[in-house]
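Sharing a chain and its predicted structure for anyone who wants a worked example. Both blocks are below, sequence first, tokens second.
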Amino acid sequence: MSRLTESTGFAGLVRASLLMLVLCFLISGSALAKSDSRPNIIVILADDLGYSDLGCYGSEISTPNIDALAAGGARLTQVYNSARCCPSRASLMTGLYPSQAGIGDFTTGKPSPDRGPGYLGRLNDNCATIAEVLKPAGYGCYYVGKWHMHPETGPIKRGFDEFYGYTDDHSHDQYDADYYIRLPENRQKEIDPPAEQFYATDVFNEYAIEFIRQGQKANKPWFLFLGHSSPHFPVQAPAERADKYDEVYQRGWDVLREERYARMQKLGLINGDHWTQTPRSLVPVDRDDIANGYPGQPNPAWDSLDKERQLDLARRMAIFAAMVEGVDAGVGRIMDHLKNTDDLENTLVLFLSDNGACYEWGPFGFDGTSRKGTTTLRTGEELRKTGQRGTHQSYGSAWANLGNTPLRLYKHFTHEGGISTPFIAHWPAGFGKVPNWIREPAHVMDIMPTLIEAAGAEYPELVHGNAVQPLEGTSLLPLLRGEHLPERTIGFDHQGARALRQGDWKLVWSKRMPHEIKWELYNLAEDRCETRDLAESDPERVEKMAAAWTEWARRVNVIWEPEKEEPVTEYEPIPTPQIANLEIKIEATVKGKLTQGVILAQGGNQHGYALHMIDGKPAFDVRVNQSVSRLISDKPLSGTIHLTATLTEQTMTLQINDEKPLQQKSPGLIPSQPQDDLSLGFDDRSAAGDYQSPNRFSGKIIKQRVVTSPPAKHPNQ
């Protein structure tokens, strides 16, 4: 008999045997968990962070933790997003173009049926989210922060196990503790600081680590999506965090743009004469109050502003910088936790932004709800209250221009400043440190296939019984490991702005500019900053690429042609005329099924005009200061008809063929250039007339034109 049996007896032997079995089970379980070599995955998405807003991309903002992530991993120079927050999220989360996933432009509870499946305003039933792909592969899936793909298709419904953040709207007060929720329903909040201590960015960072801990305890690989709302407006941060940046930004955007450009050169990001420091970008055409008096003009020189305005603007940017620093602090805490728990080596971390820096709406920013607030000049003691509890400020287009250094334009646009994102990848066990900048084009839709390859997962054919569309993106792992990707075409469309990238060539269509809007053509290998338009010198390439854009747009539901119905006629974009305080003459010849829809419209729910059909009757609407005046025929028409509509200071008229014109008193000229561009065959954005946009035209437009002229002088003037 053994010494153990002699000393303990039978009962002791049983206890010892049970103990050994338990130990063997625990050792076996641990070995099984560690034998799964698949990486953990973290995707960190900043909101409205500009191309050069990180230290490792040239910024003066302190981001040491993100910089360290970049230094130990890979940095990419040409990763594209989809120009705005929710379309980019939809694309990133599904591996598709936004319009294929159902969020072609923005989330909405009232989609327009005639815009087709690309514009449901929520994730559709024929796409799979990253969580719906990784969870069946054995991953725990966690989401923190801003969802913005519609609460009806929220994170728990679309595959995530745990969620903390908000599912509705694009932004919210960082200090409003009650707004942020824990899902699934009835989950208790593990982190719930007192309301007076609550700051959303900090709590998001804490929840990221809390969910990582939960994933680690589950003994299986995990996926965390950290979708920050910082530094999206309202710009808000504790005052003491912003204080250190006051003097930095009192130096102004002109000096800081030059310094960023020099740092980008030193970092090797800017690596040749195909980069150019662009002039200050134009302020988009908009209502004069929204554009702060600069619609269609360049952002002002810093030295042209008085001292009080400079102090107000510097404080707004200081708060923005503090928000970015708050995101960086969270990255540092996450990386420290991974290091301390031996998970750093085999965790794939991606960091990026959802669009270019946000210009909304003019160089002085706004105070109050977007497009409804005014711009307040804060002085004295009020200045330091900027960005505190209950405030709502943006930082404006000139600081956004700094954020996108040296690229042109901003969020909402498809020029490089609107769709270029900093992109950092870190995975020591997967590809290690990549010393050189990676310069091949990529897109946020490539993240899904990248994670599928890294995780050894399979993209499904069905989700919840619904057929899933094939992936559009491609894995970036070969690129990160030193290989090259095949050349491909990448398309873009956002509320009238559009673009096509083919190899080094980019075709781009702008909006809300004071000049003639037409296709522009750039060779990005020679002109990354889009300073030399080659459209006139290479019209054949423009024509071919424009046709390719239209083909792409039809394929991905930007242009919708419903089955078993008369095809929708699409028209080439045409220049948007300047109409502010000018007389307008509109001519159009149409034929076919003249029952319904917009023939031609310019403007939106503030100012504009529309020539359209109502139950076969031609109508001319003019909107001034939100109010609509209408002329409409008393009888439905068919066949081919010619329409002429005019607006002067005295009258508005509508003539049908050679009949006597309909006429009534004018509501006045359009008082400012509308934000919405000229649309043919539908109304692209908010409705210029009294109908629900897009209100597609059921017939065919044979020809059209819009002519403007200065108001005629009358004898009594």
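Comments welcome. DSSP finds 15 helices and 25 strands in the chain.
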